[in-house]
Amino acid sequence: MARVTATRHVQVGGRRVPLKAIKGIMQMLPRVVMEATANQLRVAAEETRELIIDKILAGQPAAPARSVVGRPRRISRSPIPSAERKSFTLAPLSAKWVVEKAARRLDGRTLVATGDYIRGIEVRKATIPGAGVAWGVGLESRNHEPSGLPLIALARILEAGSAAAKIPPRPHWRPTRRIVLRKLKLAVPNIRAAALRQLLREAS
Fold this sequence. Notes:
Layout: E1 4-12, E2 15-22, H1 38-57, H2 95-104, H3 116-119, E3 121-128, E4 132-139, H4 151-160, H5 173-184, H6 193-201
Antiparallel strand pairs: 1-2, 3-4
């Protein structure tokens, strides 16, 4: 379990909300995976992004908010059939927020309103001195359009919750990380990229 600490405050609407830091929220893969090839890491990062978006969008809209936004563009991948994704098990939305979503024709699913947050989930390439090229999953370095919060700040609030804003924890990064690591443990060290991709697409 990641350690959560309040580090500073941000404004959410008219409320001052403590911003909780989740150590390693964007560190989807442990340091030991750095021994994998760059190609294996790229495949793992791409499939991790697709998994978290699929699981967020697998949820059902809460009535009366029935609108749904389209899925962000998929990463161009080989046509391997994907597993049917199950949604995250998350605290339900408040009745007030569901009604407001319906009135504003926002997406009725949990963790989605306009789709801007999930569109910000990206695959990143980085060069690590002495270790070569690495790939990971993170959030774009920009603000969330509806709220004005940095995407990483919004992710931390959603992941850990906020008592001040009456937002319960709705973890989605940590469960995704656990699923991916469980799958990666089944992979042999020299697994080919196509086989690794197939293995990760079987995650639900």
